[in-house]
Design goal:
- The protein starts with a strand and ends with a helix.
- It has 4 domains: 1-218, Growth Hormone, Chain: A; 229-395, Growth Hormone, Chain: A, CATH 1.20.1250; 403-478; 540-754, Vaccinia Virus protein VP39 (Rossmann fold, 3-Layer(aba) Sandwich), CATH 3.40.50.150.
- α24 (646-655) links the parallel β10 (626-631) and β11.
- Helices cover 53% and strands 11% of the residues.
- It is built from 26 helices and 14 strands.
- The model is unreliable at 1-10 and 220-229 (pLDDT under 50).
- It is an alpha/beta fold.
- α9 (235-263) runs antiparallel to α12, α9 (235-263) crosses α13 and α11 runs antiparallel to α14.
- The strands form 3 sheets. The protein has an 8-stranded mixed beta sheet with strand order 9-8-7-10-11-13-12-14, with helices on both faces. Strands 3-4-5-6 form a 4-stranded antiparallel beta sheet, with no helix packed on it. A two-stranded antiparallel ribbon has the order 1-2.
- The longest helix has 33 residues, at 14-46.
Length: 758
């Protein structure tokens, strides 16, 4: 950092110095605490309107990053005003006006989302509700730091340590929300706590403003600059700041999307990458960094290569290892980028301009990964793209002059041309490449790491080698055929198995539907497809449907929430009426395409589908008409919490015909949901039975499934009430009932990890 002389310490008493430092530190800390706790709070408030999609979090991040830029620009403008009173008065007035809009509430205008354009609708919703309070909060960090400099405090010569205080508050806010606030307090109580905290912050900032106005007049000309390097930064410097901030910001959303799509989409896990992202800011802006920047630069190539190795596996493996791998690698990459920013930070004169550049870069990265990429790519292409850009974030170094590095470009280009051309060939070439797919990609990724660390190749060679290894993952997917379709609600993969006998519908690593296309002898299957996967006749769903049919004197009138591959269309019988409710039009298009799945074509060509969130669309159905309601929306790793509340169960109950049953599919790798369903059913005076069995492991694509059947009376479920395969369930008196105002995802995760089965 540039050596400077600042206000002499004897100009300020120790008591005054300590009080000023404490006031500004606490104010920045509380501001950051509020700034980042409102993000999961308000995002949870709107989730019921958008089906619990992980994309909600991505769009929310884009909005908050964009508004953060606006707040930083506002702070930068205020600090160009020479009169010290005007910025204090303006900012306190803004905070006061924003406080009048609290507590947060979603008006009737936003009660129903549109049929398309979810992203724009969400951005308008955020702007019209939480926009003003968040904007006022966003300005606090750079504004208070600039005020702190102008109090003539001795530590004002390098105020960036206050940025660490800000990010500590942000980090604690994100961790405390899923672990403390959400499990303990209702949504309404959380909202009130946040509102009271906002009022406290206004008082703290008023104190900081008073301390600024009481301080002697200050001008940057008071400082004696002893190093010419403190000249104002040029456009190249600002461009570098923006790029170094954009890459980890975009990577934050990309790694979150990857975790949600390919590992585990549990909402609890969405905050982990953001928490690590904030922690990197805390660490790099410490006066004495705990992790030296040179270590991070040394580890960065290994981290980028490590992510490639994880991507080669396609999400297969232990959940904790996969999560830890992606998050640790992301942390190292972000530390390297943010460490470069900390190393290149300007002196206090350009503080607000520096933060404005960081915020602009963060917004650009967020826009690319959160809004542009989902519209441009049908897979999470932003993740590998940003890994290549991360390779370009390395500083220029002294490249090795060995013969190896001189021949690096010709060798790399030749190898790339051979492999890429071969990947488009048929016959033995492509089969041979598929067989060596993993070792080949691992070798290229390892070469990039060795080149960057040992051979000291420049960042362009490193980035090109990384790009090649990532290209090979896409060119050699390891399946006979993979088709990906991306929508606001996720990335859907339609896979053809290597032997060509099965078509699979997957979301991440979770199979949501399977159809056998070819017989064992390779001939096409004709006639009515067999229901397999979770929907086989001996499973919980199959047995529950049979029980409902046996109880009903006449054809069933059934409703199914969640379409998937439409396998349940083949669970119907002639004369029955089945109506499907699905939030994602892309899923409907997949299920209706006979080249992908033939359940609809062969079983219910006139299948009725209702598009929209089932909580809203199903509530419009007439009361008392359905003999069978099947909820198949919980089997995804990302559950729509608003469909598992006491109020939601009351809607299902109202739609049931006399003696009707509700069948809830709760198979989930990461959350225990059976007890949740039992609890909300009991709260509505309904009885429950839980099914959990292990299928015949010799049968392909026959999955174990956990199902809860709910009815008004024991007689409504027939033989199920007497079957030893079903367990009568009573609610846990120590487990709080989920409502529209309260849910505890952490508890559901804990029960699953603990091994609870019901």
């Amino acid at each position: 950092m540039t050596a400077t002389t600042f206000a002499r310490r004897d100009l300020m008493s120790p008591v005054s110095s300590t009080f000023i430092l404490a006031a500004y530190t606490v104010s920045i800390f509380v501001s950051a605490l509020l700034l980042f706790s409102v993000q999961p709070l308000f995002t949870k408030m709107i989730l019921p309107r958008l089906g619990g999609s992980p994309a909600v979090w991505s769009v929310a991040m884009v909005f908050f990053q964009s508004l953060l830029l606006g707040g930083y620009a506002y702070a930068h403008f205020l600090m160009t005003i020479r009169n010290r009173v005007i910025p204090v008065v303006i900012h306190l007035a803004l905070l006061g006006i924003a406080f009048l809009t609290l507590p947060l509430a979603i008006g009737e205008l936003w009660s129903t989302p549109p049929e398309s354009g979810y992203q724009l609708w969400m951005l308008a919703l955020f702007a019209g509700t939480v926009g003003l309070p968040f904007f006022a909060l966003a300005a606090n960090n750079p504004l208070l730091q600039a005020w702190f400099v102008r109090t003539r405090h001795p530590d004002g010569q390098d105020p960036y340590f206050l940025y660490a205080s800000s990010n500590i508050g942000s980090f604690l806010a994100l961790l405390s929300y899923p672990l403390l606030l959400e499990p303990v307090f209702s949504l309404r109580t959380q909202n009130l706590i946040w509102t009271y905290g906002y009022g406290l912050l206004i008082l703290l900032i008023a104190t900081c403003g008073g301390l600024l106005l009481a301080a002697p007049a200050y001008s940057f000309q008071d400082r004696k600059i002893v190093d010419a390097a403190t000249a104002n930064p040029g456009w190249i410097d600002r461009g570098r700041w923006i790029f170094l901030a954009a890459v980890p910001s975009g990577l934050l959303i990309a790694v979150t999307a990857h975790i949600s799509a390919d590992i585990a989409a549990a909402p609890l896990l969405w905050v982990l990458p953001l928490s690590l992202y904030l922690l990197t800011w805390v660490l790099v802006f410490r006066t004495r960094p705990l992790l030296p920047h040179r270590w991070m630069l040394l580890l960065q190539p290994a981290a980028i290569a490590g992510i490639i190795l994880l991507l080669v596996g396609g999400g297969e493996g232990n959940l904790f290892i996969l999560l830890a791998g992606h998050l640790v690698c992301f942390f190292i990459i972000a530390m390297a980028c943010h460490g470069e920013l900390a190393r290149r930070r300007p002196d206090a004169r350009n503080l607000t301009g520096f933060y404005l550049a960081l915020s602009f870069g963060g917004m650009l990265g967020g826009l690319f990964a959160g809004l542009i990429a989902p519209f441009s790519f049908n897979w999470i292409a932003e993740y590998p793209i940003l890994l290549v850009m991360a390779a370009l974030c390395r500083p220029d170094g002294k490249a090795s002059a060995s013969s190896t590095t001189r021949w690096y470009w010709p060798a790399l280009i030749t190898f790339a041309a051979i492999v890429v051309i071969a990947s488009y060939m048929n016959g033995e070439a492509i089969r041979w490449l598929s067989d060596i797919r993993a070792p080949l990609i691992v070798c290229v990724a390892t070469l990039s790491m060795i080149g960057a660390i040992l051979l000291r190749i420049d960042r362009w060679k490193f980035a090109a080698t990384i790009a090649l290894s990532l290209l090979l993952i896409q060119l050699l997917p390891g399946y006979q055929h993979v088709e990906t379709i991306r929508s606001f609600f996720g990335i859907h993969k339609i896979l053809v198995t290597q032997d060509g006998r099965y078509h699979l519908l997957m979301h991440g690593t979770t199979v949501h539907g399977a159809e056998k296309i070819l017989n064992d002898d390779g001939t096409p299957i004709t006639g009515r497809p067999e229901t397999i996967a979770y929907y086989h006749k001996e499973g919980g769903i199959g047995r529950a449907i049979a029980a409902a049919r046996a109880r009903k004197d006449g054809p069933l009138h059934a409703a199914v929430i969640g379409l998937g591959s439409a396998a349940l269309a083949c669970a119907s019988q002639p004369g029955e009426s089945w109506r499907f409710f699905e939030i994602d039009q892309a899923v409907v298009d997949i299920a209706r395409d006979p080249n992908r799945f033939s359940f609809i074509q062969k079983c219910q060509p006139n299948l009725q589908t209702v598009i929209g969130d089932a909580r809203l669309t199903f509530a419009k159905e007439p009361d008392g008409i359905y003999d069978l309601i099947v909820l198949d929306a919980y089997s995804s790793d990302s559950i729509p919490v608003h469909l598992a509340t006491r109020e939601a169960m009351n809607i299902y109950k109202n739609k049931l015909a006399p003696h009707g049953v509700i069948v809830v599919h709760v198979s989930n790798r990461h959350l225990e949901l059976a007890s949740v369903i039992v609890g909300i059913a009991n709260a509505n005076h309904l009885k429950s039975w839980v099914f959990l069995n292990d299928p015949n492991r010799n049968a392909e694509y026959i999955f174990a499934n956990q199902v809860v059947i709910v009815a008004r009376d024991e007689a409504d479920v027939g033989d199920i009430a007497r079957s030893n395969m079903w367990t009568p369930a009573t609610p846990d008196e120590h487990q709080r009932i989920w409502t529209d105002d309260y849910s505890n995802v952490v508890g559901a995760v804990w029960r699953r990890w603990r091994g609870d089965r019901s």
